[in-house]
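Q: I'm building a small set of examples for a reading group on sequence design. Run inverse folding on the following structure and report the sequence directly after it, with nothing in between.
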């Protein structure tokens, strides 16, 4: 019985900690971050993996996977690397091509309204970001 309780608590705590890495609240993205998002969505060398931004929306870090079997792990390593690089708290903005950041607009939005396709052009990317309140 103790084993089952330990397993349940482990799974619960893991899910809670991985959910907590997503950013939340109102944030405006800098022009450099917007350009990074455009590049990230249609990267020529691999599939998007995770996109992190600093809490103020001024900086971003992102990773790709060149293999077909990669999945986001919820690992905190990417976040720690981002925080060391910029000296600010970093949060997950996107997993693959789907925005995970929580604000009023993203909570109300449907799946397609907060996700991107590799065929989306820069105008479409900016339009979606504007509709979701990330740019003015």
């Amino acid at each position: 019985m103790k084993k089952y309780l330990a397993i349940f608590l482990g799974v619960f705590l893991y899910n809670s900690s991985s959910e907590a890495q997503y950013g939340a609240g109102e944030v405006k993205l800098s022009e450099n971050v917007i350009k990074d998002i455009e590049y990230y969505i249609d990267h020529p060398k691999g599939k998007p993996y995770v996109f992190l931004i600093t809490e103020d929306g001024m900086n971003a870090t992102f990773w790709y996977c060149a293999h077909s079997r990669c999945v986001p792990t919820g690992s905190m390593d990417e976040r720690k690397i981002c925080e060391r690089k910029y000296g600010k708290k970093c949060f997950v903005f996107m997993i693959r091509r789907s925005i995970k950041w929580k604000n009023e607009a993203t909570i109300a939005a449907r799946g397609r309204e907060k996700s991107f396709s590799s065929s989306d052009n820069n105008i479409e990317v900016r339009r979606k970001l504007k509709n979701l309140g990330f740019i003015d």
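The chain has one domain: 22-131.
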